[in-house]
Amino acid sequence: MRTWSARPALLTALCAVLLTGTAACGGEPASEPGDKTVVLYSGRNEALVKPLFEMFTKKTGIKIEARYGSTAQMAAQLAEEGEKSPAEAFLSQDAGGLGAVNKKGLLAAVPAELTAKVPATYRAKDGNWVGVTARSRVLVYNPTMAEKEELPPSVFDLTDPKWKGKVAIAPTNGSFQAFVTAVRVQHGEDKAKEFFTALKANDAQIRENNIAIVEEVEAGKVPVGLVNHYYLGEVAKERGTTPDKLNAKLHFFAAGDSGAMVNVSGIGVLRRSATDPDVRALLDYLLSTEAQTWFAQTTYEYPLVSGAPAPAYVPPLAELKVPDIDLNDLETLEASIALIKSAGLTP
């Protein structure tokens, strides 16, 4: 799955490995305004979003020249390339990646009429990025191994001895890393380190990714796991069924708990492309009812624009009792990765 590997020393190699197409890494712009092409750095998986890009191209005639990697990799690459980047837009898996790029001064303001479509909680305070979809942290559980009434109200309860060896996590996954950042932001560095160190000491079960966690919970190999809500939908789709037919169920933590955080996938526009009509068309499309419905029905994420139906197997987004965490404060990803390592959750 996705791991943090875009250290400066590896950036040149990353350019060679991750970038395909006509543009050189950090070279001259590969696209000009109005040329019916958008160079997009995508922190979202190719298999996931390419079908949507193809729908966009069919509708508008505008080609998406996408370069894929993890959100952390793409953010690091943009920071390294700076104003010389061929990228025109950055599609991120989480708010932290967008915040990190915005902090470098690389993003332009998204038109106000577009950001106004998305609740203020899910867009940048300065208007320089906007959420496209929302994803909630949850505890996936197998009712035959962990009864609903016994599930913890707080994610911090998972360090209790009763959960020793029973909790699966995916520390190298971007969603877990964003969750670590949220804990750091909400509770401070000391408590965050204490919690994740205790989670390790409680024999947390390390898995490669969230899909593996849901599949093991479904199979009764591990009682519970920390994931994002939509992975239950993905596993159900892989098995040709619906989430309600699976053994695994979702548990939402109590109001205000860090374990109940809601993050976004989102998009920002590089400054040199602020007035490019092709980029504007892409933003219009991602926030259209058609694309928002596609996300809800295909990737099981929450749409952020009114008019698109939410996934059927989760509570409405407005009913989730999220913690008091400003998504604009999730930009310190590298510190979270360092904490994960210091807690012993990765080799």
Automatic annotation (TrEMBL):
Keywords for the protein's UniProt record, in alphabetical order: Ion transport, Iron, Iron transport, Metal-binding, Signal, Transport
Record GO terms (molecular function): metal ion binding
Entry GO CC: outer membrane-bounded periplasmic space
Annotated Fe cation binding sites: Y230, Y231
GO BP term, pick one: iron ion transport
Residues of the signal peptide: 1-26
Origin: domain of life: Bacteria
Similarity section: Belongs to the bacterial solute-binding protein 1 family.
Record protein name field: Iron(III) transport system substrate-binding protein
Originating organism: Couchioplanes caeruleus
Taxonomic placement: Bacteria, Bacillati, Actinomycetota, Actinomycetes, Micromonosporales
